[in-house]
Design a protein that fits this description.
By secondary structure, this protein is of the alpha+beta class. The protein has ten helices and 13 strands. It has three domains: 96 residues, 3-Layer(aba) Sandwich (Rossmann fold), CATH 3.40.50; 115 residues, ATP-grasp fold, B domain (D-amino Acid Aminotransferase, Chain A, domain 1); 64 residues, Dna Ligase, domain 1 (2-Layer Sandwich). The chain has a five-stranded antiparallel sheet. The structure holds adenosine-5'-diphosphate (ADP) and magnesium ion (MG).
Length: 299
């Protein structure tokens, strides 16, 4: 079995070393092609013989179009993709992903996409105050704000409605019970491999590790397990980091599902957890579909 991990750069980082160790254990032939170099190549030059069984894509919401196109092409050439380009695109869009989750009967906070005609009064009527404001595509907590007062909301609306409209934003119910904490559940190939409660720094309402949050060991109940597995399934992800917000009465609602979740904090919180090993074990189930050779693509 041959596996590629597509990510940026050539450095043999600690994360790559972990993958290498896990691959040796499972007798997987593991390579780290540089996606930047590969995605600039003429697509016709991809050598069919050299292609792997599985491609693990560590591209996040910031993936470039040509990088996603490369992944699409590898899929068409029969490689199994962890995660597929279309699934990465949808998961990276908090509004689209929220709709799909809701259509699958999963709990998500009520959302309003910011438009030209959005008014502060309508937002307060629908969501109350405080209200959460965030970029539709974002990560690491950047730009995620808690707006507490009507003047602040009016101000935010004025500022963003004056922008060129390239960047989309949404408003969302504030889940007060989850202030400064959430539950990250790591799912690989339909199974939960680890989880942690994330607690934000100081009085920050965001629990992101990138904003100084910390992971703590946490016992998962049946409801959290069920929602997490169904969320990842609904979004067609092989690897997903589901962020659950705690609701009053002991329930959950889904904040977002990350297609490229980090490993280190969750491994720190769970000393026996080896995410790289869990992912490569998931890969073994998917040998390359060689029947899908390029000449058969247009049937
Ligand atoms: N509706 C909400 N209610 C309460 N807390 C929230 C809400 N939305 C986001 N948060 C907090 O902010 C953090 C970042 O929000 P998120 O939507 O996941 O953006 P990012 O993609 O930047 O991580 C979440 O992990 C959570 O702690
Ligand atoms: Mg998040």
């Amino acid at each position: 079995m041959k596996v590629w991990i597509l990510s940026k750069g050539k450095k043999f980082t600690p994360a790559r070393q972990n993958f290498k160790k896990a691959a040796d254990l499972l007798q997987i032939d593991l390579e780290f092609p540089d996606i930047r170099a590969l995605s600039k190549k003429d697509p016709a030059l991809l050598d069919d013989e050299a292609l792997p069984d599985v491609v693990i894509s560590r591209l996040g919401a910031a993936a470039k179009k040509r990088e996603l196109a490369l992944i699409d092409q590898l899929e068409k050439q029969g490689c199994y993709i962890f995660n597929r380009a279309a699934a990465i695109r949808v998961a990276g869009n908090k509004y689209e992903a929220g709709k799909i989750l809701a259509m699958n009967g999963l709990p998500v906070p009520k959302k309003t996409l910011l438009g030209r005609s959005t008014t502060a009064d309508a937002l307060v009527a629908d969501h109350g105050l405080p209200i959460v404001f965030k970029p539709v595509r974002g990560a690491k907590g950047d730009g995620v704000q808690l707006i507490r007062t009507l003047p602040d909301l009016v101000d935010t609306l004025k500022r963003t409605q004056q922008q060129d409209g390239q960047k989309q934003y949404l408003f969302e119910d504030f889940i007060a019970h989850s202030h400064g904490r959430d539950l990250r559940v790591f799912v690989v190939s339909g199974e939960i491999v680890g989880n942690m409660q994330r607690v934000g720094r100081g009085d920050d309402f965001r629990a992101n590790i990138a904003k100084g949050g910390r992971g703590h060991k946490h016992a998962l109940d049946a409801a959290a397990r069920d929602i997490s597995i169904r969320a990842v399934q609904a979004l067609n992800l092989d690897i997903g980091g589901v962020d659950l917000l705690f609701t009053e009465g002991g329930g959950y609602t889904i904040c977002e599902v990350n297609a490229s979740p980090g490993f280190s904090e969750i491994e720190k919180a769970n000393p026996n957890l080896n995410i790289a090993l869990a992912i490569l074990k998931g890969c073994i189930k998917h040998p390359r579909n060689t029947a899908q050779s390029p000449s058969r693509l247009i049937a």
